[in-house]
Write a structure and sequence with these properties.
The complex is a heterodimer. Chain A is of the alpha/beta class. Helices cover about 35% and strands about 25% of the residues of chain A. The longest helix of chain A is centred in the C-terminal third of the chain and has 17 residues. The N and C termini of chain A lie far apart (about 50 Å). By secondary structure, chain B is an alpha/beta fold. Chain B is built from eleven helices and eleven strands. In chain B, helix 4 runs parallel beside helix 7, helix 5 packs across helix 7 and helix 7 packs parallel to helix 8. The longest helix of chain B is centred in the middle third of the chain and has 18 residues. Classes of the chains: A alpha/beta, B alpha/beta.
Chain lengths: ~260, ~325
């Protein structure tokens, strides 16, 4: 690890104008991300938790460069943000083009980003890294289960050799019995490829399991930030406490009695 | 405790393909039962079969006994008399379950007008009280609102108000909080628990979320591939599961309270097969570490109170 951080987010805000409700007045402004600052070190794992409307997804778009901040600055330290920051979305069914073969889906970023090299060899490497058989390349996404599709999406994200992998609710749409496989895979890949991992989730147990540091967001603001284990053990902000108290726990009934 | 509803040997077919293979269970009055299953396990089909709401092309056989009569043999008119009155259901997505062009107050009042023959004014007053009971803010104002003007949590509260308006004997809640944020989920589950306790309703809570069942229910049924593979008291099943599938599901959940979490979870091999692609015999045998040749035949559920359908149960 070097001392130079991967991302510096400095007092960033992003506002959207809502559709107008009256002919005579412009629509209301919604502040999706409100004065957010944090620094993300290389090979760090960061969890972002919050409920719907908290600004998690807008923050990820700002990191990916898909949105420009209205105020503040997002600085990426690296060669190419477009190549080195990749994302895996929640629903692999809608994130993969149904008319493309898996092999083409996974190598598409290599073509688009004009990355030289033997793309077929890279494809074979990637399939094996995410635990899919080489024959998968010739098939279409609909021939795979949800978990396998998420493996395809992960292989595509890894194709351009990113430094930062963003998972936006990467296991929320999967069956419970498949989630652990994908979480284990992400962990293996993170260690194997020395990735910086940002995990956005409403599932606090996943964040607690996968990350070292956590941001708790509410209505566009970061209400609490800290070492994941500490935040979960001794939450400081009332909202974090409410979130933690709201999670149903497996043992609660047994221990209450 | 008497049983509100008993399901015996319920089979559901899609065309000629059997997807629920003769499940049997009883729902006791005032008891909260969780039905756990992943996608394709048949949990929603079980609920729809009980309510007589299976879509076209699906057929149910067996017995669903309510007050001595088999619901599967009732005609639509008699079922309509029971549904929304004695038997009620709350679906996952209130936006699609509510009528978008009907005011919330009118919708919530509808069961009373249909089943109790109440006049509009009286029904509206009862609906208002019901909306207040489920803690919808500004209930008076929300009576005149349309569903899209309510938040997701408020819509689900309105659904619950409507479902419980006639004090049903059985309330089926099919993934009622899956689409909601955790803080809202906690409130809705609390509300459901209170309401069924007040009205002595039997609750069947369908979910894929084991901790939700642990918090709300007293009994649990674990469904996989159209079979109930394990059944028992929540504490017994979650503390000492006997079916390898239940054990595996519990192990796959990241721990929240342990001091130093392990970075590797115990994952279950493979994925949930699609409809009709489960192996013959025990549906879990192609993913199960304990499976052998005996598992080519589906075992019967054995045990008293805590029942398990497995040739090689744990301890």
């Amino acid at each position: 690890m070097t001392d130079e951080p991967q991302f510096v987010v400095d007092h960033v805000s992003r506002r959207y104008r809502l559709p107008r409700t009256s002919l005579f007045a412009p629509g209301r402004l919604l502040t999706a991300v409100d004065d957010v600052s944090f620094t993300l070190g290389r090979e760090e794992t960061l969890g972002v938790v919050g409920e719907s409307g908290s600004g998690k997804t807008t923050l990820m778009k700002l990191l990916l460069g898909l949105e420009k901040p209205d105020a503040g600055r997002v600085t990426y330290h690296g060669e190419s943000l477009r190549r080195e920051v990749q994302v895996v979305f929640q629903d692999p069914a809608s994130a993969l083009d149904p008319r493309m073969r898996v092999g083409d889906i996974i190598t598409e970023p290599l073509h688009v980003l004009r990355i030289p090299g033997d793309h077929q060899a890279r494809l074979a490497e990637l399939l094996s890294a995410v635990g899919l058989p080489p024959a998968a390349a010739r098939h279409y996404p609909h021939e795979f289960s949800g978990g396998q599709r998420q493996r395809i999406a992960i292989a595509r994200a890894l194709a351009p050799r990113p430094r930062v992998l963003i998972g936006d609710e990467p296991v929320s749409a999967l069956d419970v019995s498949v989630r652990a496989q994908i979480l284990n895979l992400l962990e293996d890949l993170r260690v194997g490829f020395q990735l910086t991992l940002i995990l956005v989730s409403h599932d606090l147990s996943v964040v607690r399991h996968m990350t070292d540091r956590v941001l708790v967001m509410r209505q566009g603001r970061v209400v609490e930030e800290g070492v994941t284990r500490e935040v979960f053990r001794a939450p400081q902000h009332p909202y974090t406490r409410l979130l933690l108290e709201s999670i149903p726990r497996l043992r609660s009934q047994a221990s209450r009695k | 405790m008497s049983d509100t509803l008993t399901v015996e040997n319920l089979t559901v077919r899609v065309g000629s393909l059997e997807v629920i293979h003769g499940v049997s269970f009883a729902l006791a009055a005032g008891q909260r039962t969780g039905l756990i299953g992943e996608s394709g396990s048949g949990k929603t089909l079980t609920a729809l079969a009980i309510m007589g709401l299976l879509p076209e092309g699906l057929s149910a056989a067996g017995q669903v006994v309510y007050r001595g009569c088999n619901l599967l043999e009732l005609d639509e008119r008699d079922l309509c008399r029971l549904r929304g009155d004695r038997l009620a259901i709350v679906f996952q997505e209130p936006m699609t379950a509510l009528n978008p062009v009907m005011k919330v107050g009118d919708q919530v009042a509808e069961p009373l007008r249909i089943h109790r023959g109440l006049r509009a004014g009286d029904a509206q007053a009862a609906a208002l009280a019901a909306l207040r009971r489920v803690n919808i803010p500004d209930a008076q104002e929300k009576m005149r609102a349309y569903p899209h003007q309510l938040s997701g949590g408020q819509r689900q509260r309105a659904m619950i108000a409507m479902a419980t308006l006639c004090s049903p004997e059985l309330l089926i809640a099919d993934e009622p909080t899956t689409a909601l944020d955790v803080t809202v989920q906690a409130q809705i589950l609390q509300l459901l628990t209170e309401l069924v306790e007040e009205q002595d309703t039997s609750l069947l809570l369908i979910t894929h979320d084991l901790p939700v069942v642990a918090n709300v229910c007293q009994r649990v049924l674990v469904l996989y591939g159209g079979y109930i593979v394990e059944e028992g008291d929540v504490e017994t099943v979650f503390d000492e599961p006997r079916h390898p599938y239940t054990r595996a599901l519990l192990d796959a959940i990241p721990p929240l309270d342990e001091e130093v979490p392990e970075r590797k979870l115990k994952a279950i091999a493979g994925s949930v097969p699609g409809l009709g692609e489960f192996p013959p015999g025990c549906p879990f045998r192609n993913r199960c570490p304990r499976a052998d040749d005996a598992c080519a035949v589906m075992p019967l559920a054995r045990g008293n109170g805590h029942r398990v359908a497995c040739w090689h149960p744990l301890r």
